[in-house]
Specification:
The structure holds 2 protein chains of 2 kinds.
Chain A lengths: L2 H29 L7 H5 L6 H4 L7 H20 L3 H7 L4 H9 L18 H11 L3 H14 L1 H6 L2 H13 L4 E4 L15 E4 L5 E12 L6 E11 L5 E11 L5 E3 L13 E12 L3 E2 L5 H11 L3 H23 L1 E2 L2 E2 L4 H28 L8 H26 L1 H4 L5 H9 L8 H29 L2 H15 L20 H25 L7 H30 L4 H27 L7 H14 L13
Parallel strand pairs in A: 1-4
Antiparallel strand pairs in A: 2-3, 3-7, 4-5, 5-8, 6-7, 9-10
Chain B lengths: L1 H16 L5 H4 L6 H4 L8 H6 L15 H12 L8 H14 L6 H15 L5 H8 L12 H5 L4 H16 L6 H11 L4 H17 L14 H12 L6 E6 L3 H4 L10 E5 L1 H8 L7 E11 L2 E10 L48 E7 L4 H14 L8 E5 L6 H4 L18 H10 L1
Parallel strand pairs in B: 3-6
Antiparallel strand pairs in B: 1-2, 2-5, 3-4, 4-5
Helix pairs in contact in B: 5-7, 6-7, 7-10, 8-10, 10-12, 11-12
Classes of the chains: A alpha+beta, B alpha+beta.
Chain lengths: 621, 432
């Protein structure tokens, strides 16, 4: 197919899609009942909001056809024309590749169609992400452009701002960048040094400061910049608050450093951006003056879920490539594929891919529901799980290849380098774990306030209740949260796994209550505890997602659904035991679950700022 | 009766050898065995006269043959060229051996050599100690039968051997295989020097690294370097920066009595700097000192810049800003926290102290010198210019030496370049 034909088809596809996107908006409310509560938050109370996650979100047949029609050419483009190796070596995405991405409409996937974008739903965005994820540099460039760069305008921009900027951003004529990080400020908003001061005439803000590690910093024309401004508080005091601005490169005073030399995603452009007395018109304030913190938080929270499908797409490709090798390479008159330890790696990759795919599409489906569902915890969980899965799976894939995997001739080392950044950007996994745990604990803590107060005060009835509940639990009570059984939402062939999930959720609720009782609000200081809480929650969400998806697959009779059942059961059993271990650790106090020892060791090391043990060859005499 | 006692003694001694003190049977500490021991064949009266313990004193000079002393002193005095180092020490020992083919008076010589070791700067040298032990004639003092083994065989020589080991112990020199080999050759396996050796071998390595804040073996001679070392030694924060505010004039470093420009070396960590910047200018800060710090055998004096603890009502509660962390809440909006009965920390009564902002070591301990330090500090701590500084220096006249007995008052500043040698003092005391 020649290029022109491709574009024509694309245009048709895009137009058809647009008409479809407008349609579901009116249709969807009929499909789902009014929104109840967020799924992840309810898990903290030991409940499963079945309605939120069962059945697995579906798209209609027409929608699916349209997506597939759209996906085809993009996939073809990525497999045939994108040379990831060259992009990596040259550290630059070629101009014609960028042009083609623009003509495919990939720069405006989530821009509403009235502004010239494709207006894709989250589910469709996730589907396209699977393909874009085949090349990490392109994926990062696109994500920086639309998942964070122009997201601010969509989320918080006024009508005029949208009309002014979105069309050109959607077409790719302008590229956007998100400027938040500073040398002294990672996630600490208080130490932002960039400052915007109102000019004398009151029509401009004068912006000065530098931002570092800005993806697309060298390419972008439109920047979402966060800077400190002085805001008069309601009580009359003057405070420094963060404000978001839309800054055009043409405003003047915008310069950028040379592209950073990075470990992975070398094709993406990352550099410093300096603003020197840039005059920003007052109408370019995004949201309210002083309201930049919320804008930043919303942007960051909204963009995370897509990593799940992108990584899953990459992993599927990876499985194909390594399977090819494992089935052809012969050692000891056997194919590699006949060795148990090699087979195990494929099972692991398939399982991870399956789980993160399920989590990503479940979250996308939740986000596509009407209203403004708050799925930030779910999105963060998808991000954590998929980034760690990516790192682990790519490393295992490289292991299958053995020595060849280490060579630059093969793509595996590049994929390994590329996937490392996933654990770091969009909020490091450590920070997101804190977010997941704290947000949930805050929710549970508020609801349980009364009960905990009664327990603390020693109200007899409540205490007796708690004690008798504990006794009943210890006598082997079976937990039934309504997933299985006659009217259960989970298919009977997944019954065991569903029971395991129920059991985990129940004891998780108990543990959360115990933790709140023990630590209260001081739990903020207990990062090791919160890490475990987050790990459990991620596992629970993963279990729910695979159970939901596998149940649907069986019931609708999808191809190879028995394979899905295998994967789902496998993951659930593994996650179940991991959860039991974490729960047991949480039940124990610091010395028994090693927290104290961990802290002591690190304290001694950090005091000396070195490894403290004597050398094994050292002697005293 | 004496037979019974002898048998008991023998058993006690055997037990004592096994590491268990023979006291169980004797009802008295093991060391008390000795004086009761019948005078052995070669027992010297001098050794048992004054002390109960096995650890000997060098025989007092008046009891020693004057002639022998003169001879050995002569040997050490002969050290050629006035150079006193390891080589000349070894040469002296060799000289002794050559002059005395029969090793007459070797015990006296070894005692004398032990005393002289410091002068030659070889008191930490294991090879020298081994060389000294090598002076003993071999095989002569080894017990040859049970009786000899029970009663101290050649006690004077054994004591001398122990004295060598004791001096090694005092200087933290850990004996090696060669020492063991020599001791076995000289005194045999079951002798008191060997027992001492085994105990040293057991304990010294365990104690060698027991100090979590090790001080280097050789201290720098330059007072500025020594001050740097001392300040680093006291400062727990590794990011702290040492600043030399004033270098001593060459005259000063030579130890002139009236230094016009003493050295000023200070240390301050970034945390201290930040704390000083936030200090309320209405409250004064104090320069206090001098306080003493011992580094091995040297005593140095330091001053601190500190403030009083804020009264509780003036302390600012650290507020968590509302919009601080972009990714997760820094605090939970709950009204319950860890309560008292959930507190499984030990109950420790902690005394809160006021903040210390900086430390310094100077060549002189007067106000003018310290004022220069404060001036230097103002360059990096502009806030200090607004804060009143009160000098609370202990009198430099030396009254405080006697004034306080129970309180920990700072000692008077020593004269310039003072070095106190505790070992010397101790030795003097013990000899007196």
């Amino acid at each position: 197919m020649n290029g022109v034909g491709l574009f024509l088809r694309m245009a048709v596809g895009a137009r058809a899609l647009r008409s479809l996107v407008a349609f579901p908006a009116s249709r969807r409310p009929l499909r789902t009942s009014p929104r109840s509560r967020a799924f992840a938050k309810e898990l903290f109370l030991g409940k499963i909001e079945t309605k939120e996650v069962f059945p697995f979100p579906e798209v209609s047949q027409e929608e699916l056809n349209e997506i597939n029609q759209f996906v085809g050419p993009v996939e073809k483009f990525f497999t045939e024309e994108v040379d990831s190796r060259k992009i990596d070596q040259e550290g630059k995405i070629p101009e014609e590749t960028l042009e083609k991405l623009k003509s495919l409409g990939l720069f405006g996937m989530q821009v509403p169609e009235e502004y010239g974008g494709l207006g894709l739903s989250n589910t469709m965005y996730a589907r396209l992400g699977e393909i874009i994820g085949l090349d990490a540099s392109i994926a990062v460039t696109l994500a920086a452009h639309q998942a964070i760069g122009l997201k601010g305008i969509i989320l918080a921009g006024s009508e005029e701002q949208k009309a002014k900027y979105l069309p050109r951003l959607a077409s790719g004529e302008h590229i956007a960048a998100f400027c938040l990080t500073e040398p002294a400020s990672g996630s600490d908003a208080a130490s932002i040094r960039t400052r915007a001061t109102p000019s004398a005439d009151g029509k401009h803000f004068v912006l000065s400061g530098s931002k570092v590690w800005i993806t697309n910093g060298g390419l972008a024309n439109i920047f979402t910049v966060f800077a400190k401004t002085e805001v008069v508080d309601s009580d009359g005091s003057v405070k420094d608050k963060i404000t978001a601005f839309i800054v055009e490169r043409d405003f003047g005073g915008v310069t950028n450093g040379k592209p950073e030399d990075k470990l992975g995603i070398r094709g993406s452009n990352t550099c410093e951006v300096h603003f020197e007395n840039t005059r920003v018109p007052i109408e370019n304030v995004l949201g309210e003056v002083g309201g930049g913190f919320k804008v930043a938080m919303n942007i960051l929270n909204s963009g995370r879920f897509s990593m799940g499908s992108a990584v899953a797409g990459m992993l599927k490709k990876l499985i194909e490539m390594t399977a090819e090798y494992a089935c052809t390479r012969r050692q000891f008159n056997k194919n590699l594929s006949e060795f148990g330890l090699i087979q195990e790696k494929f099972a692991l990759m398939a399982q991870k891919a399956y789980v993160m795919e399920s989590m990503a599409y479940l979250t996308a489906g939740m986000l596509d529901r009407p209203g403004f569902p708050d799925c930030s915890i779910e999105a963060a969980m998808v991000k954590v799980f998929s980034s760690e899965g990516a790192w682990q799976c790519v490393s295992e894939a490289l292991q299958i290849l053995g020595g060849s995997g280490y060579m630059r001739d093969y793509p595996y080392e590049r994929m390994l380098r590329d996937s490392r950044i996933l654990l770091i950007f969009e909020g490091t996994n450590e920070i997101l774990r804190m977010y997941i745990a704290l947000t949930g604990l805050q929710h549970a803590g508020r609801i349980l306030t009364e009960r905990i107060r009664e327990l603390k005060r020693g109200r007899v009835i409540t205490v007796m209740e708690a004690v008798s509940q504990r006794i009943r639990d210890s006598l082997g009570r079976t937990v039934d949260l309504g997933l299985t059984g006659n009217l259960g939402v989970v298919h009977p062939s997944l019954k065991d796994s569903a029971n395991k999930l129920e059991e985990n959720v129940y004891s998780f609720g108990q543990t959360v209550e115990m933790l709140l009782l023990r630590f209260g609000k001081t739990i903020v200081e207990e990062q090791l505890v919160m890490k475990r809480v987050a790990n459990i929650l991620i596992n629970l969400y993963g279990m729910t997602a695979v159970l939901s998806r596998a149940s649907r697959s069986i019931r609708t009779g999808l191809q190879n659904h028995d394979h899905e059942v295998l994967l789902a059961n496998m993951f659930c059993v593994e996650a179940y035991f991991q959860n039991l271990f974490s729960l047991a650790q949480l039940d124990k106090y610091a010395p028994e679950n090693l927290d104290e020892q961990i802290k002591k060791v690190s304290q001694q090391i950090l005091e000396k700022r070195a490894y403290v043990c004597a050398h094994p060859l050292d002697r005293t005499s | 009766m004496s037979w019974v006692q002898a048998i008991l003694l023998a058993r006690g001694l055997v037990r004592g050898w096994g590491g268990v003190c023979g006291a169980a049977l004797m009802g008295a500490p093991f060391s008390q065995v000795l004086p009761q021991a019948p005078q052995g064949l070669h027992c010297s009266a001098a050794a048992h006269k004054s002390k109960w313990s096995l650890v000997p004193r060098p025989p007092e000079s008046r009891r020693r043959p004057v002639k022998a002393l003169a001879l050995h002193e002569e040997l050490f005095r002969q050290a050629p060229g006035g150079e006193r180092d390891k080589a000349s020490f070894v040469r002296t020992v060799q000289n002794f051996e050559q002059h005395n083919v029969h090793k007459r008076g070797h015990v006296d010589f070894i005692y004398l050599a032990l005393r002289k070791m410091r002068e030659y700067g070889v008191e930490r040298d294991l090879a020298i100690y081994n060389r000294l032990l090598d002076v003993f004639p071999k095989e002569v003092f080894r017990p040859r039968n049970v009786i000899q083994r029970i009663f101290i065989h050649y006690p004077r020589q054994q004591e001398c051997g122990i004295a060598v080991l004791e001096q090694m112990e005092n200087h933290g020199v850990i004996p090696n295989k060669e020492t063991e080999f020599l001791l076995i050759q000289i005194f045999g396996r079951k002798s008191y020097p060997m027992l001492k050796y085994l105990r040293m071998k057991l304990w010294l390595p365990r104690f060698k690294n027991i100090n979590p804040f090790p001080v280097p073996q050789e201290l720098p001679q330059d007072p500025v370097d020594l001050a740097k070392l001392g300040l680093r030694h006291m400062e727990p924060d590794l990011s702290a920066r040492v600043t030399i505010y004033q270098m001593p004039l060459p005259r000063d470093s030579l130890g002139a009595a009236d230094p016009t420009q003493p050295h000023i070396v200070g240390i301050q960590s970034p945390d201290q700097q930040a704390a000083l910047a936030h200090h309320n200018p209405a409250r004064p800060v104090f320069v206090e000192g001098p306080f003493s710090l011992w580094l091995r055998n040297k005593c140095v004096y330091y001053h601190i810049l500190r403030a009083d603890l804020l009264p509780p009502e003036e302390r600012e509660v650290e507020e968590i800003p509302e919009e601080w962390n972009l990714y997760y809440p820094m605090q939970l909006d709950l009204d319950y926290a860890r309560s008292g009965w959930d507190d499984y920390e030990f109950d420790i009564d902690e005394v809160e102290e006021g903040p210390i902002f900086a430390m310094c070591m100077t060549g002189a301990h007067d106000q003018t010198t310290l004022a220069k330090w404060i001036q230097g500090l103002q360059e990096t701590n502009p806030a200090l210019a607004q804060i009143p500084v009160v000098f609370r220096l202990a009198g430099s006249t030396g009254e405080l030496l006697t004034s306080s007995s129970g309180q920990e008052e700072p000692p008077p500043p020593p004269p310039e370049g003072q070095e106190e040698d505790d070992n010397v003092q101790r030795q003097q005391q013990s000899h007196s």
